[in-house]
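Ops channel
N.P.: pipeline sanity check, posting one input/output pair.
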């Protein structure tokens, strides 16, 4: 029997990469609900567009009516919630949409799911899963020598974005404890890879470098992030969906801590080889330091002990190899980049 999975936010960066992997499984039907905000790009799903096991629905998780129609029409076996506003800079400039999507939207999705799940038979209830995709930013900021984030780290969000994601995590946990909804949560480190909207650090630097624009880095560039290649993240999500313990949280990281300056310089060195500048100078000449972002977290790092020991997943791709794959994809897909440029605001900074 073919299983149906409802994916919210499937035209976004992580969601679209997940669908491109999942669509290869002939035993799965995919329902993709996406509001197609600025970061949602159907062009990222060209492999799935005409696939018989793929259905796209234009809609928002804040719309309870459309959620109930999807559950009535497609009777999914699981839901994976990728839908979120996710950029810190945008949350500082305009926090309201983050509250609406990440908190109110998650609440409405949980309630529609609970109503659907309550009316399933006992077997279907036991097989159903609600997987909520979250971020390591809910845990706050680390000093250089502090232990990495784990599932036991207290929440300490420091931006409107991370506060809204923390709130959504708490709602998911409460719906499991109060109503018995079979939920799972993943908190991941910074993702990178194909088809990422160029407001985040790596695709922004790639795009600016290729166009000869400044490569902006906040402060002194010493903020540290743990980088996770998106396809490895997708494999971890599948592991949690299939084998995760109900009500549990799993932290997913790439074990690849780098300063922002190190990341940018690595991109520049790779581009110097893959697509040299016409003047033969290094792309590093384009690096520009800009004013620090308000409340900028210094360091993120993930302890993956739990998911490794319980589910057998661990990252295997080095940051340098993942970055090489990422650059190759962007260089091979200029049409995708051209289609996304008109969505970029004039004052975009780095993640």
């Amino acid at each position: 029997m073919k299983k149906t999975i409802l994916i919210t936010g499937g035209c976004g960066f992580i969601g679209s990469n997940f669908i491109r992997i999942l669509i290869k499984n002939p035993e799965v039907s995919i329902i993709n609900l996406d509001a197609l905000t600025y970061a949602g790009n159907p062009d990222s799903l060209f492999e799935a567009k005409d696939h018989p096991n793929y259905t796209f629905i234009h809609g928002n998780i804040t719309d309870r009516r459309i959620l109930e129609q999807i559950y009535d029409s497609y009777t999914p076996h699981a839901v994976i919630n990728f839908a979120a506003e996710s950029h810190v800079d945008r949350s500082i400039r305009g926090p309201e949409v983050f509250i609406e999507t990440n908190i109110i939207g998650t609440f409405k999705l949980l309630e529609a799911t609970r109503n659907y799940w309550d009316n399933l038979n006992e077997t279907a209830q036991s097989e159903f899963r609600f997987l909520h995709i979250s971020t390591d930013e809910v845990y706050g900021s680390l000093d250089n020598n502090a232990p990495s984030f784990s599932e036991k780290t207290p929440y300490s969000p420091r931006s409107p974005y991370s506060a809204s994601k923390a709130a959504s995590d708490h709602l998911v946990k409460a719906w499991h404890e109060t109503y018995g909804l079979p939920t799972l949560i993943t908190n991941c480190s910074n993702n990178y890879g194909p088809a990422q909207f160029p407001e985040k650090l790596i695709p922004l630097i790639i795009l600016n470098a290729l166009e000869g624009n400044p490569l902006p880095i906040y402060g002194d560039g010493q903020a540290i992030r743990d980088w996770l290649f998106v396809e490895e993240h997708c494999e971890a999500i599948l592991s949690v969906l299939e084998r995760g313990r109900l009500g549990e949280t799993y932290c997913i990281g790439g074990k690849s801590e780098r300063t922002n300056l190190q990341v940018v310089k690595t991109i520049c060195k790779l581009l110097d080889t893959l697509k040299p500048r016409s003047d033969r100078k290094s792309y590093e000449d384009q690096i520009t330091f800009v004013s620090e972002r308000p409340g900028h977290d210094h360091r993120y790092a993930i302890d993956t002990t739990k998911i490794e020991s319980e589910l057998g997943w661990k990252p295997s791709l080095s940051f340098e190899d993942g970055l090489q794959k990422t650059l190759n994809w962007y260089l091979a897909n200029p049409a995708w980049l051209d289609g996304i440029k008109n969505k970029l605001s004039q004052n975009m900074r780095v993640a």
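N.P.: looks fine end to end. The radius of gyration is 20 Å.
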